[in-house]
Amino acid sequence: MGEPVDRLLVVGAGPKAMAVAAKAYVLRELGLPAPQVVVVEPHAVGGNWLPTGGWTDGQHRLGTSPEKDVGFPYHSTWARGHNRAINEAMMAFGWTSFLIDRGTYAEWIDRGRPNPHHHVWAKYLQWVAKKAEVEIVPGAVRKIAAAADGWLVSVVDADGVASVIDADRLMITGPGDSRRALATHPKVLSIADFWDLVGRRRLPVSSRAAVIGGGETAGSAMDELVRHDVLTVSVISPAATIYTRGESYFENSLYSDPAKWRGLSIEERRDVVRRTDRGVFSVRVQENLLGDNRVHHLQGRVVRVAEQDEGVALTLRNEGRPDRVHVFDLVVDATGGQPLWFLEMFDVDAADLVELAIGGPITQPRIEAAIGHDLAVTGLDAKLYLPNLAGLAQGPGFPNLSCLGELSDRVLQAGPARARSVAVRTRERSAGR
Ligand SMILES: Cc1cc2nc3c(=O)[nH]c(=O)nc-3n(C[C@H](O)[C@H](O)[C@H](O)COP(=O)(O)OP(=O)(O)OC[C@H]3O[C@@H](n4cnc5c(N)ncnc54)[C@H](O)[C@@H]3O)c2cc1C
Fold first, then answer.
1. Which residues line ligand 1 (CB under 6 A)?
2. 129 CA to centre of ligand 1 in angstroms
3. Where are the alpha helices (DSSP H) in 52-188?
4. Which of 15, 73, 127, 177 has its CA 20 to 30 A from that of 22?
């Protein structure tokens, strides 16, 4: 009988999946224990950075530096005696290795190291997948059930054929569905509708356009809208203004190295996230928008969407002030992902296990507070890694591209009990004991 396999299933072949799979490959190459990483993806590796994912048309640029790649910050500290070797081996999967492989490294340097377009970032992720021999299962995860010592994950492929994968551990990535919109109205577009129309050059002509949201999704949509023939473009968000992402060493270092994070109070952590991540546009997007006198910011939460004459009336609410109504002839819902989107796939028993672990009905704050050092929900026997919800508890860089190398270290550092005993047995055998 063969050894039981420690299988880590990742939902979605984005940067987080590639970071974990590449690190697992490197660990195996170095003779260190690592799980079998299986990645389920309905579109393509890097699908959300391509038009098919509905979050971009692929033609906009990454907000962060591409050197924050799948190995960044190349600072493994947990595998005593092997850390240097792990860091060096991971360099082979880095952004600059990708450029060297393509023969475009010198050009990239000479052009001033520009941030790549989203579709090029997807190409980079695909290159990592190939080089690290990542096992991709084509299809979408539809259902997640609890098994005796892990998870049973149901996958449906493009032809509608269903299969079930038994996994010891599970990692959820990505923001969920891009086709959701605030209201069903032909002039209110989901972010997927928006990019689809942009891609087909069918975006309706409008004089008063509005983008709801203040994050990366809204930033890219604004960046696109100002290239079109519009009289005004309003960005709507609850904050008093749209902040520019702080890019100084002090801010960036908290993202790259979360070591200091646990020492901050929850209020200080919320403050950092508010000032650097929520309701902020990147410096480059801001520079593009600032000089354009068609661009305005409107403060408020949209609480009502109604048809008015030829347009759409949005009611904006700000606490302590009367509601205000603004009329637009094109509205893009760019409020972004749903942090708890994956729970729709959990069956009752699996959801009950999560509830038990977090000590009450499932809410975002409860889950966020329960994320441990390994980026999994504390108190669950079978690991459930939720890096997208790890920002508050473990570090603001985990939900995004800021410290993918640290993310993979945390996820791969500790396996389930069964896997650890397998690993120990394997080591003992190779040491001839
Ligand atoms: C327009 C835009 C620009 C951004 N730019 C930056 C940036 O410059 N820097 C930064 O740090 N962050 C940026 N972000 C945030 C970004 O989403 C994250 O940093 C990063 O992509 C998250 O990586 P991921 O691996 O979690 O998910 P993703 O890259 O989103 O990958 C998730 C994958 O899951 C797949 N999937 C979805 N549903 C299922 C299912 N049911 N079963 C299986 N697979 C599924 C999708 O097809 C997708 O490929 C940006 C976000 C947006 C929307």
1. 11-17, 40-43, 47-48, 53, 55-56, 62-64, 140-141, 173-175, 216-217, 220, 388, 400-402
2. 16
3. 83-91, 95-102, 105-110, 118-131
4. 177
Q: What is the pLDDT of residues 325-375, one digit of tens each?
A: 999 999 999 998 899 999 999 999 999 999 999 999 999 999 999 999 999
Identify which of 388, 401, 396 has the alpha carbon closest to the alpha carbon of residue 343: 388
What is the per-residue pLDDT for 84? 97
Q: What is the dihedral of CA 202, 207, 212, 216, to 10 degrees?
A: 60
In this prediction, residue 3 carries a pLDDT of 63
Q: How far is the CA of 48 from the centre of ligand 1 (A)?
A: 5
pLDDT at 426 over 50: no
Q: In the chain, what are the domain boundaries? A: 7-176+338-430, 188-242+279-333
CB atoms within 10 A of CB 2: 4
pLDDT, tens digit (0-9, with 9 covering 90-100), for 230-276: 999 999 999 888 888 877 898 899 999 998 898 999 999 998 888 88
Residue 280's φ and ψ, nearest 5 degrees, are: -125, 145
Using the atom order of ligand 1, give the atom closest to the CA of residue 115.
Answer: 8
Residues whose CB is less than 8 angstroms from the CB of residue 338 and which lie 6 or more positions away in sequence, other chains included: 175, 176, 177, 180
Q: Considering only CA atoms, which residue is closest to atom 36 of ligand 1?
A: 12
- Substitution site in 286, 401, 408 for ligand 1 pocket (most atoms within 8 Å of beta carbon): 401
Lowest mean pLDDT among 106-115, 283-292, 411-420: 411-420
d(CA 214, CA 278): 7
Same fold, 7-176+338-430 and 188-242+279-333: yes
CATH superfamily assigned to domain 7-176+338-430: FAD/NAD(P)-binding domain (3.50.50.60)
Q: Which of 39, 43, 48, 142 is the best mutation target for the ligand 1 pocket, counting ligand atoms within 8 Å of the beta carbon and taking the most?
A: 48
The sign of the dihedral angle between the CA atoms of 421, 423, 425, 431 is: negative
Question: Which residue's C-alpha comes closest to atom 13 of ligand 1?
Answer: 400
Is residue 170 pLDDT above 50, yes or no?
A: yes
**Number of other residues whose CB lies within 10 A of the CB of residue 85:** 16
- Sheet of 208-212: strands edge to edge? 188-190, 330-333, 208-212, 232-237, 295-299
- Is the domain 188-242+279-333 a CATH 3.30.43.10 member? no
